[in-house]
Design brief:
The complex is a heterodimer of chains A (294) and B (316). Chain A is mostly helical and 294 residues long. Chain A has helices spanning 3-31, 38-56, 60-81, 91-113, 144-166, 168-178, 180-185, 190-215, 223-237, 242-263, 268-282, and strands spanning 128-130, 141-143. Chain A has one domain (3-222). Chain B is an all-alpha fold. Helix content of chain B is 77%, strand content 1%. The chains are: A mainly alpha (294), B mainly alpha (316).
Chain lengths: 294, 316
C-alpha cells in the first residue's frame, strides 16, 4: 500500500476540511446556533468563483477576498434581521429556523444553477509535483492546485485564529463566547458581535467554496455533504476552538483517505459518521476537550 | 384512561373508516397522507413534545422500518407480517440506540439524532446485494385494483394514527407522561427526586421509534418503491416537528391538527409551484418559527416552562 501517498492525500484533504468547518464551529460555539445554512454558503461561494472565472475570466484566487467580503455582508445582515430573533431559544427552534432558511437558499440555487455538476478548469493547469524528483525514496505525487488550495485554506484558518486572539473585535467575540452577559456588562455590544461572528462564518464558507471550485466539480446538491463534514469535524475537534477544528479536519482527512484505501471509498462517509456517533457517546467534548454550552 | 374517551376515539375511528366509500381516490390518497403525517407528528411528540428532547431521528426509524419490511416482503413474508417485523426492528434499534445517545443533551443530542439517518442511509446505499443500494427496492404490489389498494392503505394508516393517538393519551395520563414532563422541565431535579429519567426517556424514544417505523413500513408498501435518499430524507424528520409546533408540542390533539393544517399548506404549494415548493416550504417554516412558535392550539401547559419561555421570547 502506498502509505506516504495516502498520508499526503489525507493531509491535503484535512486542511480543506478544517477550512470547511471553521466558520460553522465558530458560529456554533459563539452564538450557540447550529447553522444549517453553512453548506449552502460554501456552494454559493463556489458558484460565484465559477461564474467570475467563466464570464469575466478572473482567477479564483483573486475573486476569493471579494467573495468573502460579500458573504460577510450577507451573513451579517441575515443574523441581524432574522436569526437574531432566536438567539437563546432551544436548539429545536434555532435548528429548525436555519433549516427553513436553508430550504429557501437551496431551492434558489437549484433554480438558478440546475443540479448539473460543473467544473472550473483553469486555462493554465498547475500540474503536479512528483516528490521522487527531489527525494528518492518518497513515492508521492502532489497535484499543485490541491496543494495551493490547502495552503490557502490553512492560512485562512490561522487568520481566523489570529483575528480572535489579537484584534479588539476578535477578543470581544471570545468574550461573548465565554459569557455573553458579562461581556455585555463590560460594554461589548453583543448583538453586533453575534452578527460579526455569523458574517465571519459566512465569509470563510464563501472563501472555502472558492477554493473547492478549483479542485472538485460543484453542484447545489453538495451542500448537505459539506454540512455533514462540518458536524463531524466540530465534534472530533471540540466546539468553538480553532485549533480543535484544525485537529478535527486533519483527523477526518486522514481517517477518510486511509478508510478509502482499506475498505473502499464508497464507505468513507459511513466511516466518518460512525466515528462521529462513537465519539459523541464516548467523548462528547471532542479530541481537544472544549465543550460548548450543553 | 376513561371509558368515555376510549369510546369516543373508537367511534371516530369507525366513522373515518367508512369515508373512502363515499369519496374519490384522490381524496382517499390525500387522507392517507394526513394520517401518515399525523402518526409521524404524534410519534415525534412523545420524545420531542413530552420529554423535550429535540430528536431529528424520525427519518432514521421511518427509513429503517420501510427497508426492513420491504426486504422481508422480498423474502416472501406477507405484508402485515413484514410490517410487524419492521416495527420490531425499529423498537429494538431505538432502545439500543436511545440508550447510547439519550445521555447527550441539547445540541449534541440533536446532531447525534440527525446523523443516525445519514449512517443508515449510507449503509443501505452500499449494501447493494441486500437492499438494491441506490437503485432502490421494489416492493411487491398485492392487488391491481386501485379502489381496494387505496382503501387498504387508508385503513392501515388510519389504524396507525389511532394507535398512536391512544398511546399518546395513555402516556399523557399515566405516570410515564408525568415523568416525561418532569424531564422536560428539569431533568436533574427529576433525577434527584427519584424519577428513573433514563428509563422513561428510552421508553419514549422506543415508542416514538416504533410508530415511525410502522409508518415507514406501511408507506413502503403503499408507494411500492423505496430508495435510500427518499426513505431517509431529512424532511421526514423536520416535517413532524413543524406539524407539532404548529399544533402545540406536548398536547394530545395538537400534532393531528398541525398535520392537517400543514398538509393543506403543502398540497396548495405543491400543486401550484412545482419547482419552488421546497423554497416555499422553507418560507412557511421560517414564518412559523418567527411568528407562531406556540402553535395554533394554545391549550393546556399554560404554566409550563416552554410556554413562559416562548412568551418571554415574543416580548423580546
Amino acid at each position: 500500500m502506498l502509505v506516504p501517498q495516502i498520508l499526503a492525500n489525507g493531509l491535503l484533504l484535512g486542511g480543506l476540511y478544517a477550512c470547511i468547518a471553521v466558520g460553522f464551529s465558530l458560529v456554533w460555539g459563539v452564538t450557540n446556533i447550529i447553522n444549517m445554512l453553512h453548506g449552502s454558503f460554501i456552494v454559493v461561494g463556489a458558484y460565484a468563483a465559477f461564474f467570475a472565472y467563466q464570464t469575466l475570466g478572473i482567477n479564483p484566487f483573486v475573486t476569493l477576498p471579494v467573495i468573502a467580503a460579500l458573504m460577510f455582508g450577507i451573513g451579517y445582515l441575515l443574523q441581524r434581521t432574522v436569526i437574531r430573533r432566536v438567539i437563546g431559544a432551544t436548539v429545536l427552534i434555532t435548528l429548525t429556523l436555519t433549516f427553513g432558511l436553508n430550504l429557501i437558499l437551496e431551492n434558489a440555487l437549484l433554480v438558478a444553477f440546475k443540479a448539473d455538476y460543473r467544473k472550473l478548469n483553469l486555462a493554465h493547469p498547475l500540474g503536479v509535483i512528483d516528490v521522487r524528483d527531489y527525494v528518492d525514496w518518497l513515492d508521492v505525487v502532489v497535484p499543485v492546485d490541491r496543494l495551493v488550495c490547502t495552503l490557502v485554506a490553512v492560512i485562512l484558518v490561522v487568520a481566523v485564529y489570529l483575528f480572535l486572539r489579537f484584534t479588539n473585535i476578535g477578543r470581544a467575540v471570545v468574550a461573548v463566547r465565554m459569557d455573553g452577559r458579562a461581556a455585555a456588562l463590560m460594554g461589548v455590544e453583543v448583538n453586533h458581535i453575534y452578527a460579526i461572528t455569523f458574517g465571519i462564518g459566512a465569509a470563510i464558507a464563501g472563501a472555502t467554496g472558492t477554493l473547492l471550485s478549483v479542485i472538485f466539480p460543484i453542484s447545489p446538491l453538495m451542500s448537505s455533504s459539506f454540512l455533514g463534514k462540518s458536524f463531524v469535524i466540530c465534534v472530533l475537534g471540540g466546539l468553538g476552538s480553532v485549533p480543535g477544528v484544525l485537529v478535527g479536519g486533519l483527523t477526518l482527512g486522514l481517517v477518510e483517505s486511509f478508510g478509502a484505501a482499506i475498505v473502499g471509498s464508497e464507505h468513507s462517509l459511513t466511516i466518518s459518521f460512525a466515528l462521529l456517533l462513537l465519539l459523541m457517546v464516548v467523548r462528547p467534548t471532542g479530541l481537544m476537550g472544549t465543550r460548548a454550552f450543553q | 384512561m376513561k371509558y368515555s374517551t376510549l369510546l369516543l376515539v373508537i367511534a371516530c375511528f369507525l366513522a373515518l373508516l367508512l369515508v373512502p366509500f363515499g369519496v374519490g381516490n384522490y381524496s382517499v390518497r390525500l387522507a392517507t397522507t394526513v394520517f401518515l403525517y399525523a402518526a409521524l407528528a404524534l410519534s415525534w411528540n412523545l420524545i420531542g413534545g413530552f420529554a423535550g428532547y429535540p430528536s431529528f431521528a424520525t427519518s432514521a426509524f421511518f427509513g429503517l422500518g420501510a427497508y426492513v419490511a420491504g426486504i422481508a416482503q422480498h423474502h416472501g413474508v406477507p405484508m402485515a407480517g413484514a410490517w410487524m417485523i419492521g416495527t420490531m426492528a425499529c423498537g429494538i434499534f431505538s432502545i439500543g440506540f436511545g440508550a447510547a445517545i439519550l445521555r447527550l443533551k441539547g445540541h449534541y443530542f440533536a446532531v447525534a439524532s440527525l446523523i443516525v439517518a445519514e449512517v443508515l442511509r449510507e449503509i443501505i446505499n452500499t449494501s447493494t446485494s441486500l437492499t438494491g443500494g441506490g437503485m432502490g427496492l421494489n416492493i411487491p404490489v398485492f392487488t391491481s385494483n386501485p379502489d381496494l389498494f387505496g382503501r387498504i392503505f387508508y385503513s392501515a394508516m388510519l389504524a396507525l394514527m389511532f394507535a398512536s393517538l391512544l398511546m399518546t393519551i395513555w402516556v399523557s395520563q399515566s405516570k410515564t407522561g408525568f415523568a416525561l414532563r418532569c424531564i422536560q422541565q428539569n431533568e436533574d431535579a427529576a433525577n434527584v427526586l427519584g424519577v428513573n429519567t433514563t428509563g422513561y426517556k428510552i421508553l419514549a424514544f422506543a415508542l416514538s421509534g416504533c410508530i415511525a417505523g410502522t409508518a415507514g413500513a406501511i408507506y413502503g408498501s403503499w408507494v411500492s418503491y423505496i430508495d435510500p435518499s427518499d426513505a431517509f430524507d431529512i424532511l421526514i424528520s423536520v416535517k413532524p416537528i413543524i406539524m407539532t409546533l404548529l399544533g402545540g408540542p406536548g398536547t394530545i390533539l395538537g400534532p393531528i391538527v398541525g398535520a392537517v393544517v400543514f398538509l393543506m399548506f403543502e398540497e396548495l404549494v405543491w400543486r401550484n409551484f412545482m419547482t419552488i415548493h421546497k423554497g416555499l416550504l422553507g418560507l412557511i417554516v421560517v414564518g412559523l418559527i418567527l411568528f407562531l412558535p406556540t402553535g395554533v392550539l394554545q391549550i393546556r401547559r399554560s404554566n409550563s416552562r416552554a410556554w413562559s419561555q416562548m412568551r418571554a421570547w415574543i416580548a423580546k
